[in-house]
């Protein structure tokens, strides 16, 4: 057996190392280490509750809106208020822009450049991949970055600046969008739709969203081999990325996008079939993380975050959240599975959820979201209220559960005597990249890496890179 | 044209090549350079010097970009900017030899590239620090490739030609330095004592402030004039309050007191919602954000500034607390922020009675101010529909 330390990973948000035990060219065991700690949960204690909205977006420069949304929801729960229709639509739009931007950024800047590596030189698709996706120099970045900057104008129109906005408040949005703002917003969305339809998919978004089975996807890929998504599918087939990196755990989603009657994509668990989610069964284990131990894994509403650097069994700053004692995987794949998209369910039922399914689910989500965003923008009613007001009680306990691009994000807020008594956060990558728990059960990535091939003399094995990146990790959120 | 004229270029200045490299027209490009020069308080000559510096790739300084405790917000804000697309200009203007988020390679190979670059460009490279440096327990809270951010920063600063701290975290510690500062988060200037560090605070900082500073460095081979906190004077010498478009409402005593109330919908001043514009030095009102124009910046979309770039304000003072107005003190008759929820309601008056006579007297003043405002409010709601 040999031990290999892969990292630090670049093209990843934050700091990450993976420690691999390798025998006979396969990973036997993996340990995931997050090496950055900032102490947000400690800082929030004792602050005024509305100030959570100033602090939490700074947890992450690319998930900042999701962090705001979770905090706003927790505060709204404490205040017993809900945003009016306009506020709900603006919140959906802001979150959707971030979601779409994150997915497409992951695809273009973080995931695809690995296909341009020299180790794939013999593959028939390599020349195309290298031309488009070589980091910084590839042609795709030139198409994508201006399109992304264009989309981010909508964050300006809705949220004032990006990243890090204070527009999302418990009662709704601080920014009443007027008729001309709505028009400009629709224009931004239309321009981004053109980029997606011309460059990423080479097809209408509605047509991509309507692909209903694995076979249909294969036929679609043949007809659209020239698009960037087509190129990915070609490479994924050649490398059998479906089988690679399956975690074999249940999938979880908190549900996303508020509508008048519940969430568009519902909350739930998927393990061979859909089950309801009970957030009360969530607890965090710190047996292998650099924190003071509790006698048992604590639910986040009673959780604590006390760093201790010297701890024998520990190897990460990341805690190990578990649902009813089990590790789960979260993200776009989980969201679309629970929401019942036929393509994603077909892929999982036939081949399980590996690297390819994660990437497909993300782009499918992009194709589904943009039309919904156009619809939400059209539904805005300038002149009607965007926000309601309310009073914060002196004592309250409330959770804000939302879906960020990378999966389930929860904030648990406890107010006593008008101040934040406790604030605990579980981010998507905390679930996916968690270390072992007290019974030695690995997290989703640690499982997904087992059996992944490591070539002779490979210092940063390309298959390991594919698996790690397929989760679109956000390490700064993981340990806050 | 003669070489020494204000409006001439070196014969080698190849605009066709610039147009191709930057993907913008010559006109847009020159407009941009003139704009940057103007914000430095410099004339056309400087604009042309900058244009030439960009046009001449031989002058591109090598850059080492370090990430500490942070959220990559500054890099993200750079990547979304445009005019001519900033990321394009940045990547074109400098030779980015090491950047963790954008690099092609992976793992220790990238760290080796960093070392090579530092050796090769000894004394010539520009060091950009993004993120805070945690000092507690010898820096264990942030490690890159097994090296603490403390050591990485000290090592890279040793032979840097100039150091720029990009974002509030690198400038003074930022969000993670808020009490109780569990990791001992520190800014680059405080950590690198004795070295000149130019700071571009903001959370996220405006990419234009970074770009302008780099452009100045590329053009003149030195850093622009800075204030006592290391901030370039051209960008940070004015209070947000001085250039805020809601300032007339402040002077007239018209305030929003809750998100979504009548004053808020009329676009009135956010001072009583805790706006820290009166104590924060930055150029947000003139530059705005996300390049959409039309009042797109925090105060423009109706929420208060919380002083993200100002040490001692952002992440230190509560959002809903009154700013310390640096220009002039508002009259005492302005209602206090603590009473912003319907100051004349009976519950507040009852609470005030319990609290004591001093507060009671203050509320009396509030009620008078409230009365005076009524007349103005009626006037304003007839004429003002802007900003709603």
Please characterize this protein's 3D structure.
The complex is a heterodimer of chains A (480) and B (388). Chain A is of the alpha+beta class. Chain A has a single domain, classed as Cytochrome-c3 Hydrogenase, chain B (Orthogonal Bundle). Chain A is 41% helix and 17% strand. Chain A has helices spanning 40-44, 52-55, 64-79, 85-111, 126-133, 139-159, 179-200, 205-209, 214-223, 228-239, 332-338, 342-351, 355-379, 428-432, 444-448, 462-470, 475-478, and strands spanning 2-6, 16-23, 26-34, 168-169, 172-173, 250-253, 256-259, 262-265, 268-270, 274-275, 282-285, 320-323, 328-330, 396-404, 407-416, 419-426. In chain A, the strands form 6 sheets. A 4-stranded mixed sheet of chain A has the order 10-9-6-13. In chain A, β15 (407-416) and β16 form a beta hairpin. Chain A is globular, with a radius of gyration of 22 Å. Chain A starts with a strand and ends with a helix. Chain B is of the alpha/beta class and 388 residues long. Chain B has 3 domains: 12-58, no CATH class; 60-236, 3-Layer(aba) Sandwich (Rossmann fold), CATH 3.40.50; 240-383, Cytochrome-c3 hydrogenase, C-terminal domain (Cytochrome-c3 Hydrogenase, Chain A, domain 2, Irregular). Chain B contains 17 helices and 9 strands. In chain B, strands 2-1-3-7-9 form a 5-stranded parallel sheet, with helices on both faces. The radius of gyration of chain B is 24 Å and the shape is globular. The interface between A and B is large, with 78 and 80 residues.
User: Order of helices and strands of chain B, N to C?
Assistant: HHHEHHEHEEEEHEHEHEHHHHHHHH
The total domain count of chain A is 1
Would you tell me the structural class of the helices and strands of chain A?
Answer: alpha+beta
Spatially, the strands of the biggest sheet of chain B line up as 2-1-3-7-9
User: What's the CATH topology name of the largest domain in chain B?
Assistant: Rossmann fold
End-to-end separation of chain B in angstroms reads 52 Å
Q: What's the average pLDDT of chain B?
A: 76
Averaged pLDDT of chain A, please? 92
- List segments of chain B where confidence is low: pLDDT < 50 over at least 5 consecutive residues: 1-6, 343-388
Distance between the termini of chain A: 34 Å
Overall shape of chain A: it is globular
Structure class of chain B:
alpha/beta
Instruction: Return Rg of chain A in Å.
Output: 22 Å
* Count of separate DSSP helical elements of chain B: 17
Oligomer designation: heterodimer
CATH class membership of the largest domain in chain B = Alpha Beta
Strand content of chain A: 15-25%
Level of helix content of chain A? 40-55%
The structural domain count of chain B equals 3
Number of helices of chain A: 17
């Amino acid at each position: 057996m040999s031990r290999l330390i892969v990292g630090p990973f670049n093209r990843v948000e934050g700091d990450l190392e993976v420690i691999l035990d390798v025998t006979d060219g396969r990973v036997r065991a993996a340990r995931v280490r997050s090496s950055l700690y900032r102490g947000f949960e400690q800082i929030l204690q004792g602050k005024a509750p509305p100030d959570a909205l100033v602090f939490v977006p700074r947890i992450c420069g690319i998930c900042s809106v999701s962090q705001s949304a979770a905090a706003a929801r927790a505060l709204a729960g404490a205040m017993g208020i809900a945003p009016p229709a306009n506020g709900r639509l603006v919140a959906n739009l802001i979150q959707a822009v971030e979601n779409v931007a994150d997915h497409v950024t992951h695809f273009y800047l973080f995931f695809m450049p690995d296909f341009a590596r020299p180790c794939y030189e013999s593959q028939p698709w390599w020349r195309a991949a290298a031309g488009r996706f070589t980091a910084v120099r590839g042609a795709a970045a030139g198409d994508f970055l201006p399109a992304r900057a264009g989309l981010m104008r909508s964050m300006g129109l809705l949220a004032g600046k990006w990243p890090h906005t204070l527009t999302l408040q418990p009662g709704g949005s601080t920014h009443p969008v007027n008729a001309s703002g709505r028009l400009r917003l629709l224009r931004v969305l239309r321009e981004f739709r053109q980029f997606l339809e011309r460059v990423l998919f080479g097809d209408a978004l509605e047509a991509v969203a309507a692909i209903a089975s694995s076979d249909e996807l294969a036929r679609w890929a043949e007809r659209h081999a020239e698009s960037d998504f087509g190129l990915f599918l070609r490479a994924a087939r050649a490398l059998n990325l479906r089988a690679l990196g399956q975690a074999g755990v249940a999938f979880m989603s908190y549900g996303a996008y508020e509508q008048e009657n519940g969430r568009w994509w519902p909350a739930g668990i998927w393990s061979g079939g859909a089950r309801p989610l009970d957030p009360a069964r969530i607890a965090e284990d710190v047996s292998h993380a650099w924190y003071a131990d509790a006698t048992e894994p604590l639910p986040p509403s009673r959780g604590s975050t006390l760093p201790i650097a010297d701890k024998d069994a520990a190897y990460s700053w990341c805690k190990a959240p578990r649902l009813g004692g089990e590790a789960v995987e979260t993200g776009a794949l989980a969201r679309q599975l629970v929401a019942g998209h036929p393509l994603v369910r077909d892929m999982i039922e036939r081949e399980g959820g590996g690297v390819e399914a994660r990437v497909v689910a993300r782009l499918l989500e992009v194709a589904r979201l943009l039309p919904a965003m156009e619809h939400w923008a059209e539904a805005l009613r300038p002149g009607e209220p965007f926000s309601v007001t309310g009073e914060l009680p002196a004592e309250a306990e409330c959770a804000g559960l939302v879906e960020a691009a990378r999966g389930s994000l929860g904030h648990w807020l406890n107010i006593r005597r008008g101040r934040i008594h406790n604030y605990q956060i579980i981010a998507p990558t905390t679930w996916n990249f968690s270390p072992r728990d007290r019974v030695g059960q690995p997290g989703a990535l640690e499982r997904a890496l087992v059996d992944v091939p490591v070539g002779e003399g490979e210092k940063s094995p390309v298959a390991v890179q594919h698996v790690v990146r397929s989760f679109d990790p956000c390490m700064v959120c993981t340990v806050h | 044209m003669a070489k020494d004229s204000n409006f001439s270029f070196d014969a080698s200045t190849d605009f066709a090549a610039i147009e191709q490299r930057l993907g913008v027209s010559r006109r847009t490009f020159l407009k941009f350079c003139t704009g940057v020069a103007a914000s430095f308080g410099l004339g056309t000559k400087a604009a042309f010097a900058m244009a030439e510096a960009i046009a001449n790739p031989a002058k591109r300084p090598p850059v080492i970009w370090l990430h500490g405790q942070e959220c990559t917000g500054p890099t993200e804000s750079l990547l979304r900017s445009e005019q001519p697309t900033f990321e394009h200009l940045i990547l074109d203007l400098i030779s980015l030899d090491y950047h963790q988020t954008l690099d092609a390679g992976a793992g220790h190979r990238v760290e080796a590239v960093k070392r090579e670059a530092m050796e090769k460009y000894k004394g010539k490279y520009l060091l950009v620090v993004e993120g805070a440096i945690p000092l507690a327990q010898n820096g264990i809270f942030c490690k890159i490739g097994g090296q603490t951010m403390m050591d990485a920063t000290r090592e890279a600063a040793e032979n840097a030609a100039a150091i720029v701290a990009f974002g509030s975290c690198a400038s003074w510690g930022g969000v993670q330095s808020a009490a109780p500062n569990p990791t001992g988060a520190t800014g680059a200037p405080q950590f690198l004592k004795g070295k000149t560090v130019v700071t571009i605070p903001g959370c996220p900082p405006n990419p234009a402030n970074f770009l302008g500073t780099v452009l100045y460095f590329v053009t003149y081979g030195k850093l622009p004039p800075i204030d006592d906190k290391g901030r370039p004077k051209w960008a940070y010498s004015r209070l947000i309050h001085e250039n805020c478009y809601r300032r007339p409402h402040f002077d007239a005593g018209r305030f929003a007191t809750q998100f979504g109330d009548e004053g808020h919908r009329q676009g009135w001043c956010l001072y009583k919602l805790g706006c820290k514009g009166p104590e924060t030095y930055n150029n947000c009102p003139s530059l705005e954000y996300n390049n959409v124009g039309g009042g797109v910046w925090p105060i423009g979309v109706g929420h208060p500034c919380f002083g993200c770039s100002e040490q001692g304000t952002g992440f230190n003072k509560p959002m809903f607390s009154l700013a310390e107005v640096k220009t002039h003190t508002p009259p005492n008759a302005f209602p206090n922020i603590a009473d912003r929820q319907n100051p004349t309601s009976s519950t507040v008056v009852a609470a005030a009675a319990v609290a004591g006579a001093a507060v009671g007297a203050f509320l009396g003043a509030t009620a008078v101010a409230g009365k005076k405002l009524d007349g103005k409010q009626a006037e304003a709601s007839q004429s003002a529909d802007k900003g709603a």
